[in-house]
Amino acid sequence: PLNECKLIGKPTRRHPKEAWAKVTGEAEFGIDIRVPNMKYAVVIHPTIFGAKVKSFDATSALKKEGILKVKQISTGIAIIAEHWWTAKEAVNDINVVWDEGAFKNVSSKTLDKDYSELLNKNGNIMRKDGDSEKAFKEAAKVIEAEYNLPFLAHAAMEPLNAVVHDKNGSAEVWTGGQLQSIYRDVTAKVLGIESKDVTYN
């Protein structure tokens, strides 16, 4: 609720020390955080949007020293280990069979084709200012160009990461995400605690 927000609608000012820490490389990011008895997880995600795990074999990975658990989650396979590199290397030891779903044949080429076909159909006019057809007819020169960009995910500067410190009844989270309220609620749900007991950095 808006009345519970502490910063929305109020002027905020970044502290000069924050900028200095970032310029000098002293700033701590989510990936720099360390907490007691910390474990590391790496997730194997599908290469096709919407694909789900059909089956997986982690026998080889579980034989490696430092691997604590391999678990199927809603978005893929999570590997939990004593060290980050151990978890990262175990990705190569796990065989995952994916149910590729409805988007298995979708690619940048098929999207370009679909979008080009849509351009030739009449759409809904949301706003019309002036007479564009007349302007084109009367123009001394008309330049046409087509630009295509692949369908890409948002490119974060920082490696995607999150640290969650479970404090038995409360939790503290460090991550570079932009949906703090949602992440707080999800963390609370996973840990079985109240959202108000999650501190988000």
TrEMBL record:
<dbReference type="InterPro" id="IPR036856">
    <property type="entry name" value="Ald_Oxase/Xan_DH_a/b_sf"/>
</dbReference>
<dbReference type="InterPro" id="IPR008274">
    <property type="entry name" value="AldOxase/xan_DH_MoCoBD1"/>
</dbReference>
<dbReference type="GO" id="GO:0016491">
    <property type="term" value="F:oxidoreductase activity"/>
</dbReference>
<feature type="domain" description="Aldehyde oxidase/xanthine dehydrogenase a/b hammerhead">
    <location>
        <begin position="24"/>
        <end position="102"/>
    </location>
</feature>
<dbReference type="InterPro" id="IPR000674">
    <property type="entry name" value="Ald_Oxase/Xan_DH_a/b"/>
</dbReference>
<protein>
    <submittedName>
        <fullName>Twin-arginine translocation pathway signal protein</fullName>
    </submittedName>
</protein>
<dbReference type="InterPro" id="IPR037165">
    <property type="entry name" value="AldOxase/xan_DH_Mopterin-bd_sf"/>
</dbReference>
<dbReference type="Pfam" id="PF02738">
    <property type="entry name" value="MoCoBD_1"/>
</dbReference>
<dbReference type="InterPro" id="IPR052516">
    <property type="entry name" value="N-heterocyclic_Hydroxylase"/>
</dbReference>
